[in-house]
Amino acid sequence: MAQSVYKVIELVGTSTKSWEDAAKSAVETAAKSLKDLRIAEVVEMDMQVDKDKVVSFRTRIKVSFKYKK
């Protein structure tokens, strides 16, 4: 059986709509330059607040992709 190696990186996506859109943005942006994405795990979610109103959502994710030698 062939062995595989995966690299894991951490990304932060932002959105003015939702945490889900922020996570989706991070994955879709990463997919433009990384190949063979496998798993995206939400690590943390937070919001930016300005004048008592939420102005943006941030989602920190870990993304794994197959490492090619």
UniProtKB/TrEMBL annotation:
Signal peptide per UniProt: none
Cited Pfam families: Dodecin
Where along the sequence do coiled-coil regions lie?
A: none
Sorted alphabetically, which InterPro entries does this protein's record hold? Dodecin (IPR009923), Dodecin-like (IPR025543), Dodecin-like_sf (IPR036694)
Spell out the protein name for this chain: Transporter
Source species: Desulfofustis limnaeus
